[in-house]
Structure formats: C-alpha cells, structure tokens
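Q: Got a minute? One more chain.
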Amino acid sequence: MRFIYSIFLFFMFQLGFAQKESGAKQFWNTLKQHCGKTFEGTITAGATPNDPFVGKKLVMHVRSCEENRIRIPFFVGDDKSRTWVLTFDNDQIQLKHDHRHEDGSEDKITQYGGKSPNSGLPNIQFFPADQFTADLIGYASTNVWWITLDEKSFSYNLRRIGSDRVFTVTFDLLKPIATPEAPWGWKE
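A: Always. Here it is, folded:
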C-alpha cells in the first residue's frame, strides 16, 4: 500500500498538483536573495518639480534579512531617515515605514503602512493602508503601496486612491553599488 501511495504522490508532483509555495513566500525568498546588496534607483512615476526626491541619489540597501523580517534602508541623498520594514507572517507580508531623526529617535510620523490582504503574487505585493496609518495620517488612509520584484528590478510604489498622487522609484537589481553607511538610528 505504501508503494502505491508513493507512486501516487510522485505522479501528482510531476503533474503539478503538489502544493507550491504561495506568491508571498516566493516573493519573500526572491527578496532575501538580495540581502546585503545595495542598488541605486530612479523616479519612474510621479516626480514633480518641487518633489524633495528629484535630483537626489536614491539608494536602497537590503541590509537585514531575518527569517520573518527584512529591513531595507532607503536613502534620499544625505537623508538616511527611512527604512522599509517587511514582515512575513501567516503567508502575508506587512510593510511598515520606519522614520528616524539623525539622532536615531523616532519621527512623530513613523511605523505607518499596511498588510497584504492575501498571499499575492511572486512578483508583486500590495499593502493597503492599515488602521494605524489612518489614525496617524488621516489623508493617507486611502494609500496603497506595492512592491514589484523580478530578476532585473525592484520598484516601490505609492498610489493615493481618489487623488492624482502616485509615486514610483525603480531600482536596477543588475547593478549593485557600494554598501552605504548605516541609516539613522540603526542598531545591530
């Protein structure tokens, strides 16, 4: 009987009926492959002449990869205040924005973001604003962030539903750059 069951499992696997990793898990594992690497980005949507990101060097550093948490500092020129914090839990990913002052203390607007409503796809994860964000920043209650990821690029995106607000910065994963100093408030 065991032999027949083993053959059954073998054929089910060969036919693709075996359970594959979820979209969230595949996305997570792909992102972890970039741990320790640093990439330069460009604004690919939503830039305005008075945007504080325009004309600045944009850098992401996949600095810390733990089993269920990945931290990615995002530098805008000399401003090292931002870190994207991704947490994997129960087959969903949460995105939080950790904002710090130069002395390492938390900004009053920090830890906002959202959690994916489902496991998503291997190359894209959506994060609608959570209740904490709505309470902290009322106008951001309709924010939706998403990250796209493939073998060539990583993009961080923001859309404020009901407005013209959109922002995308895209990083070239084929061209790692030198590792920057730690972000503000970083503790190993």
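A: The helical segments are 2-14, 23-32, 131-136.
Q: Perfect, thanks.
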